[in-house]
């Protein structure tokens, strides 16, 4: 199973469970007079739409290079990640708006049986979030990480509703707005993480530098090849679930072109067959000790 397929499988699980939870939350919310649960249920429907967009992005990213896209279609995964981050920020804004509206307009306290439903939602959504987060780390998918944070946002708002509704039921008259105040606190966490996710995905979309450990590992792999004197320059960018790389290796200047070319191929093969997902490696072979005036990325 490819990394894209692993990520897609995780998102499909999200869609199925979100559909079930949405039905439960809206139904119980209507019967139990819980505005928080109804809003939460609608949010789960929105999460299904976001998850579908992530699946589309991962599917497109899996397509091989063609005449119109010589570098492949990997960028679709980053676009799906941006969409997921923006929709997370929008979800936080929507919940905050409804919470403020409910605080300003007095309403009755929800029924007690909404509490066990909220506990179930928190357990399922946090479990789903951890599963998706683990798979996002495994596949290095920012779009899947966004999907994981949608689940955690659900768990946070449900947790806030649980605390708020409990206070409202215990406090009685005058405490009806407690669940909405708690939801506002949860929104702050959603906004912070939505912003961080957006920043990270935008960094990748703008061909930002990869993590330092990837550079160190790529340099070590290249330098270990017999005939390589040193790694002069290295740059890489993320595309989809892997990386494109330019690496400058220096070899003995007295070697024949054929021998230098062979060493370059050895470096390329070692990087492409490593555990890291280096999708495309362009090797520049240069004579050791010579200085170059042309400008290159580091």
Outline the structure in words.
There is one protein chain. The two termini are 34 Å apart. The protein folds into 2 domains: 203 residues, Cation efflux protein transmembrane domain (Alpha-lytic protease prodomain-like); 76 residues, Alpha-Beta Plaits. With 298 residues, it is mostly helical. It is a multi-pass membrane protein. This is Cation diffusion facilitator family transporter.
List keywords for this structure.
single chain, 298 residues, mainly alpha, Alpha-lytic protease prodomain-like, Alpha-Beta Plaits, 2 domains, 66% helix, elongated
Biggest sheet, spatial arrangement of strands: 1-2-3
Domain count = 2
Principal-axis shape equals: elongated
What letter string, H or E per element, gives the SSE order?
Answer: HHHHHHHEEHE
Taking the alpha carbons of the first and last residues, their distance comes to 34 Å
CATH class label of the largest domain: Mainly Alpha
Structural class: mainly alpha
Which radius of gyration do the C-alpha atoms yield? 25 Å
Q: State the share of residues found in helices, binned by percent.
A: 55-70%
Query: Which topology of the largest domain does CATH recognise?
Result: Alpha-lytic protease prodomain-like
Question: Which whole number gives the mean pLDDT?
Answer: 85
In this structure, how is the largest beta sheet organized? 3 strands, mixed
Percentage of residues in strands? 5-15%
What is the CATH superfamily classification of the largest domain?
Cation efflux protein transmembrane domain
The assigned CATH architecture of the largest domain is Up-down Bundle
Number of strands: 3
Poorly predicted regions are 292-298
Q: Count of helical segments?
A: 8
